[in-house]
Amino acid sequence: MKIKILYEDSNILAIDKPSGISVHGDGRSEGKTIADWVLQNYPKMKNVGEPEVYENKKIKTEILKPGIVHRLDNETSGVMLLAKNQKTFLFLKSQFMERVIKKTYHAIVSGEVRNDRGVINKPIGRSPRDFRRYLAGRGARGEMREAVTEYKVIKRFGTKDKFTYLEVRPKTGRTHQIRVHMKYVNHPVVCDSLYNPDGPCPKDISRLALHARSIEFTDLKEKIIKVESPVPKEFEKVVE
What we know:
Distance between the termini: 30 Å
Number of domains: 2
CATH architecture of the largest domain: 2-Layer Sandwich
CATH class of the largest domain: Alpha Beta
Strand content: 35-45%
Order of helices and strands: EEHEEEHEEEEEEEHEEH
Number of helices: 4
Largest sheet: 9 strands, mixed
């Protein structure tokens, strides 16, 4: 597995996660993960972070998440932060919890988004029909967690099928947040097999059109650092 390193110092590692690779295992799925790559290339990070326990058929499995402070969905690509030691892990985690880390995504969504800018402020809960999915608005079940997403139109395009290229800034960090919120406003992310399975995909796009473009954080020396991931070539093609 080849992973591009976008930034590295003695405490922090930022990588360019490819689409189609899981961040870590779940006790059921097979295949190499980002966690596997970390353990192979940075073995000293093995015990950094917090392990996660999955229960499958009454069997509990502890999953290592070496240095992983946050995660991206399997099909989402882009910049991802890892901590090289426990002090840095806790320091970065506190920034995520306090919502001071600035994250920017690029997304291609179905339809022509009318307003040039917008804010989606809608709590997210579980879908009552599919355990894999989350839901905003009516019908959601379980704990409803605050979720806020800002977006800005970069370009509208398409003739027969309309699409919109967006810059998206999630202010909270809920699972599938951008995908759920864009679905809620009837502009789901294209090529999303979970939230937009029957929607058209633009030419040259065959993956979830969601990319973590940049992340801005403070390091242990109180220096503000911004790391960017290049826009995927397939995104550039469809908006030329």
